[in-house]
Amino acid sequence: LLDGGRLRLTKMLGSGAFAVVYLAEETAAPHRKLAVKCLPKPTVSATEAAALLQFQRREAVLLQRLCPQPNITHLYRTLTTRDAMFLILEWCDADLFDVIVKGDTPLLYAPDHAARTVFLQLIDAVLHCHKHGIFHRDLKPENVLLDDLPSLPPVRVAVKLSDFGLATQAKRCKDFGCGSRHYMAPEALADGAAATAGGHYHPAAADVWSLGVILINILTGKNLWLSPDPSDPHFAAW
């Protein structure tokens, strides 16, 4: 139990380098389902711990600035214990990656309509972020959540952009390699020309590149290149 017994963690949904996400249920009626992102407090030196805690809190601060917005995962509240920080978030039925890979939902029964429905909402979410000076930097199908999946066409799915752990307010970045490699813009790659030359990249433009790759995923169900590397002719062509 969590939050003074008001939340019951039911199962782990996923984990990453800095956090674990659980499915939770309110113990009181109407027993609403929620997602709980657990950010364990670091067990490192005091200086490193302070920097990491600031990094963890940043996601909550950015979400509070962006919400409410219908296409961004809603942050209900945060909790802090001696061992961890918790983000209590809106829970969604699925993510875009599962829909593309499994192809077993009605979302794919009408692919043209589905592409428009999903992608236009995703653009609205990213545009809202950019208008507030926030750049996501980890746009990928796994971070595009889908809610209200229909049992039959027509498609009326709701898109929710999630996971702002790598988001930044900097208009120019030098932390190359930040994000998921298959969706990174060429100039943001750690082994790209800009990094090699000691330059920088613009995270707003990098987000737009990632959106384009996601659209390719939606329309084709795959990536157009095996590796995001100039030696891959398909990647080099883009």
UniProtKB/TrEMBL annotation:
The answer on whether this UniProt entry bears the keyword Transferase reads: yes
Q: Name one GO cellular component term.
A: cytoplasm
A matching Pfam family: Pkinase
Keyword check for Transferase: yes
All copies of the Protein kinase domain together span 7-238
Q: Which UniProt keywords apply?
A: ATP-binding, Kinase, Nucleotide-binding, Serine/threonine-protein kinase, Transferase
**Residue numbers binding ATP:** 37
Similarity remark: Belongs to the protein kinase superfamily.
Protein name per the record? Protein kinase domain-containing protein
